[in-house]
């Protein structure tokens, strides 16, 4: 049985997605996060929207992670989610950067163990450049990143 915190985190994300991307469509891409200290990248593109995760980590063995992109039917609101679906990651992240292209980032959330928000000093959000990176006091634990994005309406 999954711990209650995983279920709560999943349900809260589902609620946010349902409000943000009503009538949404989602593409999911499974990938492996590999330790070894080498800087690696995973990216997914859909309808001109790109979600990218760059990382460097140490630890035991590779882990299965998921990158998903949800968008509403108007193709204006997007959500990029990068997460370890099996719960807490056991890897120690030395570096991470999650970024998007093709839309403006409006909000970014970063979670650590047990579905808890990372402290603000553990990461740096740069909405202008549509990315989030580790901060000066990053504790090396990362389980999930969510980037909410919007393509502005074009004025006629």
TrEMBL record:
Keywords: Signal. Residues 1-21 form the signal peptide. The keyword Signal applies. It comes from the Eukaryota. The keyword Ribonucleoprotein does not apply. This is Myeloid-derived growth factor. The lineage of its organism: Eukaryota, Metazoa, Spiralia, Lophotrochozoa, Mollusca.
